[in-house]
Amino acid sequence: MTQSADYVSEADHYVSSNALVIGGGVAGMQAALDIANQGFKVYLVEKTPSIGGRMAAIDKTFPTLDCSACILTPRLSEVARHPNIELLTYSEVEEASGTDGNFKVKVRRKARYVNESKCSGCGECAAICPVEVSAEFEEKLGFRKAIYLPFPQATPAVYTIDMESCIECKRCARECDRDAIDYEMKDKIVELHVGAIIVATGYKLFDVTAYPRLGYGKYPNVINAMEYERLINAAGPTHGHLIRISDGKMPRKIGFIQCVGARDVNKGVPYCSRVCCMYGVKNAVMAKEHDPESEVTIYYADIRAFGKGFEEFYEMAHTRFGVNFVKGRVGEVVEDPDTQNLLCEVEDTNTAKLEQVEHDMIVICPGLQPPVGLDSIAKTLNLTQSDDGYLDIEDSFLAPVETHVEGVFTCGCADGPKDIPDSVTAGSAAAMRATIILSKAGDKK
Ligand SMILES: Cc1cc2nc3c(=O)[nH]c(=O)nc-3n(C[C@H](O)[C@H](O)[C@H](O)COP(=O)(O)OP(=O)(O)OC[C@H]3O[C@@H](n4cnc5c(N)ncnc54)[C@H](O)[C@@H]3O)c2cc1C
Fold first, then answer.
1. What is the CATH number of the domain that holds 244?
2. Whether residue 430 is found in the same domain as residue 284
3. Whether the Cβ atoms of residue 227 and residue 135 lie closer than 8 Å to each other
4. Does the Cβ of 423 fall within 6 Å of ligand 1?
5. Which of 54, 257, 274 should be mutated for ligand 1, with most atoms under 8 A from CB?
6. Domain end call among 341, 368, 395
7. Are both 172 and 213 inside the same structural domain?
């Protein structure tokens, strides 16, 4: 249940026992829960209409192939129901001032044109809405209505009107028994007083059109890994049927290209994104699970399988599932206009041979980058960013979740690429550091 925002009330010179978490992905949710479970109030600010972050869109998780939504959904409810967590979704931090123990923060609550306290999430409004647009959550491979829930388990289960697409026919308003639609709703600014802030704003995918030679955006059967996650997901736009975009046929010869927008100084991404090797291996295994007869090849530079169970998973992909691993960078992908199959030119560095291999689907595995808007969050909170654009941390050995500003912490991918377990660990660590400050609440600064 979403509670209403609590406005500044404490005297300025007292340490506040409230925390602010910015970003409602798996890292931010973990931080919020850990703080809330110690009895402190947490405002969780998420810029999209729902918490959940990228994990909500991922199909299975490496290395166990557990269903991502099955792990995440109970967490979404736990956060939403927690009496000490106030969810401020569809909201963004605009201003902040103060010091550790005593920050004042202004948050813009964007108008969703649906009253949160009245909406029951029944979906009658979307059912009658005549406007269909591409769904962001489905990586634009599926559709949503102008009034929508981003995904079925979206939290809070409150609809949002996308006013850019809405034609204001007002059918949704007439259909809503609870009178929850409010076309006159305006953005609201709420002011919060918090003792500690945690930034958990996650990442964006590297835009692979930066490599035109790989054919993404040009050939329909070249897709990126997040699109693949939705295609293979039973709750996704094709109900889990892995199909080629060009003709709806099941691909039988799939190539995965690793390290695109990672470890490439020329594209401004010299760092390793840490998760792409394993999500690439996972997705190759998923293709074999769907169709054991399919030929699946991973083109890689190195396989970095550093986590618990990762090396074993990589081995299993090869030995049990029969995924081919070819060490070599793909030079170019060219479409055969007759079949819309893809000819992949690759130098196999183990054999030193230049080969041309035909695939009927190519999946590009992009690296991660700082999310859109991180610069502005950094500026608002006086945080510094490292050369790669992620948040700077105080000390990577002894203070890996602390920023250079006292009382402001970071976790998850906000300070660099991480997988889910590492993001959760960092969320808990940031919560721990934050509560050291919050526990002094009531003390004079
Ligand atoms: C294709 C792919 C497959 C993957 N598969 C796996 C896997 O199988 N196993 C695994 O361990 N990892 C996997 N990962 C990595 C996984 O996605 C990340 O580890 C995890 O999502 C990181 O969580 P996070 O909370 O840091 O970031 P995110 O999930 O990105 O969440 C950040 C949240 O912050 C919000 N936000 C951003 N900016 C703001 C702002 N200014 N104000 C308010 N809110 C904001 C975002 O909307 C989002 O909800 C995969 C990654 C990719 C790309």
1. 3.50.50.60
2. no
3. no
4. yes
5. 54
6. 368
7. no
Do 99 and 137 fall within a single domain? Answer: no
- The Å distance, Cα 79 to ligand 1 centre, comes to 17
- Do 213 and 360 fall into the same domain? yes
CB neighbours of 144 closer than 8 A, spacing ≥ 6?
126, 132, 133, 134, 135, 136, 137, 138, 150
- Tell whether pTM > 0.70: yes
Residues 215 and 341 in one domain: yes
Average pLDDT, the chain: 95
In a shared domain, residues 362 and 395: no
Neighbours of 271 (CB within 10 A): 18
What spacing in Å lies between the alpha carbon of 23 and ligand 1's midpoint?
A: 9
Last-in-domain residue among 334, 368, 402: 368
Predicted confidence (pLDDT) per residue in 368-426, tens digit = 999 999 999 999 999 999 999 999 998 989 999 999 999 999 999 999 999 999 999 99
**What is the tally of structural domains in the chain?**
3
Indicate which residue's Cα is closest to atom 8 of ligand 1. Answer: 61
Residue 145: both structure tokens together: 């209505």
Is the Cβ atom of 57 under 6 angstroms away from ligand 1? Answer: no
The answer to whether residues 331 and 230 belong to one domain is yes
Q: What is the DSSP letter of 305?
A: -
| Structure confidence by residue, pLDDT tens digits, 320-352 | 999 999 999 899 999 999 999 999 999 999 899
- Contact present, 417 and 274 (Cβ < 8 Å): yes
Q: Quick one: 288 and 309 in the same domain?
A: yes
Mutation test residue for ligand 1: of 58, 259, 401, 418, the one with most atoms within 8 Å of CB: 58
**Residue ranges making up the domain that contains 89:** 1-110+187-203+370-445
Task: Give distance in angstroms: CA of 310 to centre of ligand 1.
Answer: 19
**How far is residue 411's CA from residue 179's CA, in Å, rounded to a whole number?**
39
pLDDT digits (tens, 9 = 90+) for 87-120: 999 999 999 999 999 999 999 999 999 999 999 9
Q: What is the DSSP letter of 430?
A: H
